[in-house]
Structure formats: structure tokens, C-alpha cells
Amino acid sequence: MSYTDWNQHLTTLQEYCVNNNIQIVFKRGCQDGYTMKTQLIEINNRRTKQNQVYILLHEIGHHKIVSNKKLAKKFATLNEPYSYNLSNKILNLEEEVMAWHYGENLAAELGIELDSKYQILKAKCLKSYIDSIASSK
After folding, report:
1. How high is the pLDDT of residue 80?
2. What is the pLDDT of residue 61?
3. CB-CB contact of 102 with 65 (8 Å)
4. Which of 89, 94, 118, 129 has a Cα-to-Cα distance from 136 of 20 to 30 A?
5. How many CA atoms lie within 13 A of 42 on its CB side?
6. At what angle do helices 116-134 and 86-110 cross, to 10 degrees?
7. pLDDT score for 85
């Protein structure tokens, strides 16, 4: 896909966010993430347009999770200000995997084709959570 295609996908996702009351901020050098309280997604605009699309899909996945009362309750402990024990690390990994899957489903719904680079980025991002779990005692 071309740079123009990825820009169009970003526009499509921005429109989706506007229609679902999700704020997006593209910042230079920020850490990508979703803030539950403000429903704000921050995307590092130093990433390639393709990776911005992929990360935005994932962060919208987090929004969908916390918007679902049953899932929000399940993952609520992850927002508590206490140390990350092994069970919370595993729960966090579960939420991360789920957010990537929600992103894949949204891409299909919006007609955004995902290639192997999506799976590679997903694996790279999830590896940091897996490494954290593996280093737990």
C-alpha cells in the first residue's frame, strides 16, 4: 500500500473516533497509549503512517474493552495503584492480546487490509509483556 492509502486509513480511523467520542492526539515522540479516564489516545507521529494505523487500531481496542462493562470490571484491577504481581501481569497480557484482536476486527469492519507487518508489530509489542511475566518470581 502507498503512503496515501495509509493516510486515508488514518482519516477513516479518526472519523471512527470522532463518531465514538474518542479523542486522538498525534504527538512527536510520545508513548502510544489509551487513557481510560479521559478516553484519550496518544499516537507517536514519528512512527510510519502504517504503524500509526496499526497502533491506533490497537488503542481503539483498549477503548472497546473498557467500554464493555463486563470486561471493564474484569480488568479494573489493572488501574489500581499497587504493585504488579504475577496474576496482574498475566491479566494485563490478556487485555493487550484482546486489544490487538479488537483492532483486527475493527480493521475488517472498516475495510482496512492488514498484512504480516501488523502481526509482527503485535508480536513485538506483546513480547515485552511476556518478558515481564517470565522474569517474575
Report:
1. 64
2. 97
3. yes
4. 118
5. 11
6. 170
7. 81
**Residue whose grid cell is 509482527:** 120
**pLDDT of 112:** 96
Taking the CA atoms of residue 116, residue 120, residue 122 and residue 126 in that order, the dihedral angle to the nearest 10 degrees is 150
Alpha-carbon gap, residue 21 to 15, rounded angstroms: 10
* 8-state DSSP, 25: E
Q: Which residue has the cell 499516537?
A: 43
| Opening angle at CA 125, ends 93 and 5, nearest 5 | 125
Full strand arrangement of the beta sheet holding 40-44: 23-27, 40-44, 33-35
- Residue 90, classed as helix, strand or coil, is helix
Intervals of the chain under pLDDT 50: none
Residue 67 grid coordinates: 467500554
Residue 113's Cβ-count burial label (10 Å; 0-12, 13-18, 19+) is exposed
Rounded CA Rg of the chain = 15
pLDDT of residue 102: 97
**pLDDT tens digits for range 74-96:** 887 676 656 678 888 888 899 99
